[in-house]
């Protein structure tokens, strides 16, 4: 279909829905960028921890009757604690090794987490209700926008901005960046660099869990729900530039919109357009759009 033949309301509505997907891409790729940029670890377990955040939200509602808003706080905290254990017990032993070791280790963690939850709950999916205060739709002129999807965009952008500000504009962020560049010098000022690194990994996976709770009412919860997203999210991080906070957020939002547009213009290409863009970007600029050339 020609782009100019598409009715404007249909085009705008599809672009807005693409922005919702882009919000998920942005917050997930942000967590990956934080972990790689500050710890130099390719965290393939990110998708599993995204899924774990959603499953914990469902378990909180099902077994403890804890509502969505409570689990939006507790689930990322719980996954952050799990991430801290993973970093202290496993990851810190491979920081000086080749990236392949981190990739294989986190892939193994992914298979264990997914296997345990698949054995416990199967793969058919677990429904999670939309919070009552965010149910319904709002007329925005060209479409009826689901209130919950609007909340996803607002919450994701808020968290992304807060994370960028923390890392790029605060003294703590400066310590984190300096600690990854020259840990010995930073430790000479009395700063506990290993603790900062541990907390950074915990924070990165907490972002994934936060995205998982946001996704729970939109995507049916399943032990395999992270598999479909994580490959796209890795492509987003590569396009934006490995370790670039701004690149992760901007690229995630932009690719969500482009993917939404592709579903209208040429639906058959919507599942591959992100990877086609990745190939082109890597050919022209191997470090990514926002990455630093070495």
Automatic annotation (TrEMBL):
<feature type="transmembrane region" description="Helical">
    <location>
        <begin position="35"/>
        <end position="60"/>
    </location>
</feature>
<keyword id="KW-0812">Transmembrane</keyword>
<keyword id="KW-0029">Amino-acid transport</keyword>
<keyword id="KW-1133">Transmembrane helix</keyword>
<feature type="transmembrane region" description="Helical">
    <location>
        <begin position="265"/>
        <end position="284"/>
    </location>
</feature>
<feature type="transmembrane region" description="Helical">
    <location>
        <begin position="66"/>
        <end position="86"/>
    </location>
</feature>
<dbReference type="Pfam" id="PF02653">
    <property type="entry name" value="BPD_transp_2"/>
</dbReference>
<feature type="transmembrane region" description="Helical">
    <location>
        <begin position="231"/>
        <end position="258"/>
    </location>
</feature>
<feature type="transmembrane region" description="Helical">
    <location>
        <begin position="195"/>
        <end position="219"/>
    </location>
</feature>
<comment type="similarity">
    <text>Belongs to the binding-protein-dependent transport system permease family. LivHM subfamily.</text>
</comment>
<feature type="transmembrane region" description="Helical">
    <location>
        <begin position="98"/>
        <end position="117"/>
    </location>
</feature>
<dbReference type="GO" id="GO:0005886">
    <property type="term" value="C:plasma membrane"/>
</dbReference>
<feature type="transmembrane region" description="Helical">
    <location>
        <begin position="148"/>
        <end position="167"/>
    </location>
</feature>
<keyword id="KW-0813">Transport</keyword>
<keyword id="KW-0614">Plasmid</keyword>
<keyword id="KW-1003">Cell membrane</keyword>
<keyword id="KW-0472">Membrane</keyword>
<dbReference type="InterPro" id="IPR052157">
    <property type="entry name" value="BCAA_transport_permease"/>
</dbReference>
<dbReference type="GO" id="GO:0022857">
    <property type="term" value="F:transmembrane transporter activity"/>
</dbReference>
<feature type="transmembrane region" description="Helical">
    <location>
        <begin position="6"/>
        <end position="28"/>
    </location>
</feature>
<dbReference type="InterPro" id="IPR001851">
    <property type="entry name" value="ABC_transp_permease"/>
</dbReference>
<dbReference type="GO" id="GO:0006865">
    <property type="term" value="P:amino acid transport"/>
</dbReference>
<protein>
    <submittedName>
        <fullName>Amino acid/amide ABC transporter membrane protein 1, HAAT family</fullName>
    </submittedName>
</protein>
């Amino acid at each position: 279909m020609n782009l100019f033949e598409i009715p404007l309301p249909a085009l705008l509505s599809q672009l807005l829905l693409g922005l919702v997907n882009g919000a998920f891409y942005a917050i997930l790729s942000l967590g990956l960028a934080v972990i790689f940029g500050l710890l130099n670890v390719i965290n393939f377990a990110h998708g599993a921890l995204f899924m774990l955040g959603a499953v914990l939200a469902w378990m909180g509602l099902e077994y403890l009757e804890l509502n969505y808003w409570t689990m939006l706080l507790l689930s990322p905290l719980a996954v952050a604690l799990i991430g801290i254990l993973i970093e202290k017990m496993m990851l810190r032993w491979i920081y000086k090794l080749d990236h392949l070791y981190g990739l294989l280790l986190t892939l193994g963690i992914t298979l264990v987490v997914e296997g345990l939850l698949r054995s416990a709950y199967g793969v058919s999916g677990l429904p999670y209700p939309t919070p009552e205060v965010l149910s319904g739709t709002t007329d925005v002129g060209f479409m009826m926008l689901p209130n919950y999807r609007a909340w996803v965009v607002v919450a994701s952008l808020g968290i992304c901005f807060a994370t960028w500000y923390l890392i790029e504009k605060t003294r703590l962020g400066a310590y984190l960046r300096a600690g990854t560049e020259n840990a010995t010098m930073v430790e000479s000022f009395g700063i506990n660099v290993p603790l900062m690194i541990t907390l950074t990994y915990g924070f990165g996976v907490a972002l994934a869990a936060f995205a998982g709770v946001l996704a729970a009412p939109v995507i049916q919860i399943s032990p395999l729900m992270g598999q479909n997203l994580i490959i796209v999210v890795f492509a987003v991080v590569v396009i934006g530039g490995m370790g670039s906070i701004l690149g992760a957020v901007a690229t995630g939002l932009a690719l969500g919109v482009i993917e939404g547009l592709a579903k209208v213009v040429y639906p058959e290409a919507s599942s591959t357009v992100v990877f086609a863009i990745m190939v082109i970007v890597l050919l022209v600029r191997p470090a990514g759009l926002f990455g630093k050339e070495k």
